[in-house]
Amino acid sequence: MSEYDDADDDLPPPQNRTIVWLKRVGMVLALLLLILSFVNASWLAPIPRGTVKLVAHRGTSQQFSHKGLDNQTCTATRIEPPVHDYLENTLPSLTSAVALGAQAVEVDIALTTDGRLALFHDWTLDCRTDGKGEVRSKTMAELKALDPGYGYTADGGKTFPLRSFNRGQIPALEDALAVLPDTGIVFNFKSRDAREADQLAAALKFLGRDVIKRGDGFLGTEVQAARIRKAFPGVWAFSKEGAKACTKAYLAAGWFGLVPDACKGGTLFVPLNYQWAFPGWPNRTLARMNSVGARVVLVGPMGDDLPMGLDLPEQIGKVPASFTGYLWVDDIYAVGPALRPYYNKRSPEKEMALAKNLEARRKARE
């Protein structure tokens, strides 16, 4: 009998029973922790096959401050000093993203008055272009006549360095498919109108796009995602609300080796700075999601005034070597070559200009 057992015997019976109870609870919790650790051990799961897939958000684009953004903010008026002349959602932007290492490109869809689908982010034209009014009030020909770089400025409107470089480059859907015949496209519905999903599905079928083979994705409302899944069974179609539901449910149920219903055929978002919170990360998480047809998307750090995707080259160092899901990238120009250096075709002058912008970006977040 140990000295601790003797000490327990000297205590009043109720207190003695409490200590014994606490010891037993402690042993049960320790055993449970050991079991959960074993169940969620990533190193015991099969090593995922394949490689990470970069998704270039809006293609190769100008970067801007996210501080204090709201739905009415004109981001074209708060860009960093340009180190290239690519503009989001334009044809040169799409091809550039692939040249920088992207396996998929996210684009924004808008329906025109003549029944065409254009690639453009904003609801109105006033911020970025030399046009006025709602995008959806124009024909495709009217959009193609505009200068999509007209409103971009890095010095509060003193200069507009991107004017005229991309006039005529607002593309129609068929233009984008022509320059990305073998690259996955993530179509983002900026409208909540379910008819735009029907229109896109019909157009893709008419144009002969094999969305499953190409690895295309569709991001919209739950109703839009359901319409797309009906048109293309098995395709990747999701909403941000659905992805949040899967993520929250897995954070709770995953520790017990369970994959919640919200994740079946769904999408799991994993913030770069919260990877540690996901049960079985990365290998076992990937295996569990793959078993129910779910996609895993590693996004940028969660926090105020930060973009959704990665935008600093050093963030690549935080991506597990065995991760084979999707990596959401806001600045493919900086991040793509950081992952795969052979895609780096920047001149020494552009390297210096980029380094200056990146340093300012880091300081702004301190």
Automatic annotation (TrEMBL):
Keywords: Membrane, Transmembrane, Transmembrane helix. It comes from the Bacteria. Pfam families: GDPD. The keyword Transmembrane applies. The keyword Membrane applies. The chain crosses the membrane at residues 25-45. Residues 68-339 form the GP-PDE domain. PANTHER family: GLYCEROPHOSPHORYL DIESTER PHOSPHODIESTERASE (PTHR43805), GP-PDE DOMAIN-CONTAINING PROTEIN (PTHR43805:SF1). This is Glycerophosphodiester phosphodiesterase family protein.
